[in-house]
Structure formats: C-alpha cells, structure tokens
Amino acid sequence: MMKFNFPGPGISCSLHNHTTFSDGASTPEEMCHAAKAAGLKIFGISDHWCVPVCDGTDWAEWCMKHEDLEKYINTLLALKSKYDDDDFCLKIGLEVEFYPENIDSVLENLKKYPIDYLIGSVHFTGTFSVDHDIADWDGLTQAEMDDICEKYWCQLEKAAACRDFSFIGHLDLPKKYNLIDNSKYFSHAEKVLDILQKNSGAIELNTAGWFKNCAEQYPADAILKSALKRQIPVVINADAHHHSHINRNFKQAASLLDKLNN
Ligand SMILES: [Zn+2]
Ligand SMILES: [Zn+2]
Questions:
Q1: Residue 7: is its pLDDT beyond 80?
Q2: 10 CA to centre of ligand 1 in angstroms
Q3: How far is the CA of 98 from the centre of ligand 1 (A)?
Q4: DSSP alpha helices (H): ranges in 38-125?
Q5: What whole-number distance in Å separates Cα of residue 175 and Cα of residue 91?
Q6: Which domains does the chain have, with CATH numbers?
Q7: What pLDDT digit, counting tens, does each position of 166-177 carry?
C-alpha cells in the first residue's frame, strides 16, 4: 500500500468522507461534485471497511458490503476520469476497522486494488460499538464504561504501530456522547502519539465531533497540542456523511491548529 503524502499547507484537501456505499447519505458522485464546487484540490472518499473477528457486532448496518468492494473501486475510478483535472484529484480510500487479530490478512487482500490511502480506525471493543448509538451506553456501570475506554485505547496503540495507515481516525472517539471523562485517557493518547511519532504516522483533526454531544473536535485540544509539538502531521477532515459537510468547520479547525501550535 502506498503511503499517501500529505499536501502542504494551503492546499485544500478533505480525506475522510462516506457515501451510500457505507453509511453516507450522498452518492459518490454527489460528494465529488460538491468537493469540486467547493474548490477542494484533493478529495478522498473513504467508506467503512470492516472484516469482523467475532459474531454479534452491528458492522453490517454501517459498513460496506464485502461484495461491493469491486463496484466501489470501479465507481471511484470512473469518477476520477470524469472529474480529475489540473486543479482537482479524487483519491480512493477506505476507513478500515482495525482488529489486531486480522489486520495482516485484511491489508493483504486490499493490496489487490488501486487504493490510494487507508484510514485506521477503531469503533469496536469486542462486540461493543463505541459510537454507533448512544442507547448502547444505557445502563452501563462506571466500571463497564472504564473497561470499554481502556480496551479502546489499547487497541488504538496497536493500530498506531501499523505502518499501512495514512492516518488514524478520530483519536478520542469514546468521548462522542459526552458520557465519559475523556481527560482520564490523555496518558493513553500520549502513548499512541509516541508510537505514531516513532512510526512516522499521522492523525486527523476530525471536525464532526463539534456536532456530537461532546461538542468538540476529535481529538481534544491537549492531544492535538501534543501531536503538533511532536511534529506529527495533522490532516483536517470532516468525516462527512452528506455532501454539504465535506469541509464543514475547516476554517475553525485551521485556526485552532494555528492557536495550538503557538
Ligand atoms: Zn469512523
Ligand atoms: Zn468515518
């Protein structure tokens, strides 16, 4: 898998976007059209790709059907030939569910396709989906919530060590519903950043968090500040599930990064 080179400052780019191939509401063409109209130079589509390691998860409700992968690639290749020009480039990506148990075979299989980049994300701890539905958290004890978060961060450490991801998605995702004390896990985040720094990895500033119960970007200011201090690349993304969101809050994100970098 080719490691994607991040465009320099000033190049408008959006790399974390979902379509109707997984849980997005807009078609790839609607997304692509909107990206070009918005003046983005590099636009990546990265639908959810999950190969579960156990039964009983809800992955099929929000990830691409395995039999659709070829159609997904062909659709994006066709859109590339229609939309790409000197000012615009469509990139073919996937947001890959990271499971230490099967990541090698998952990556090996994806090598067969002309994919430009992969986002490494963790959404599951065991069969529990961290960010799918707030109702999943109903009735959990504090100890159970702590356990989910601990497991999440341990899994993310392993994802950070995987050199095939262009960047790690929404680093502090368990804070989404504002049900946990996210600051308790900053030491875990530091460990993840240590590993990324050592492996030339990268993270994203994911603006979707501003529109969730947590009402802040992923990851938190303190984690971003630490990443910037370590000179870990931070790419601004919207995690868009609708064509009107492809660069949502990018200006605020850029000024936040400027502020935290000083
Ligand atoms: Zn995600
Ligand atoms: Zn996503």
A1: no
A2: 25
A3: 11
A4: 69-83, 103-110
A5: 29
A6: 13-261 (3.20.20.140)
A7: 999 999 999 999
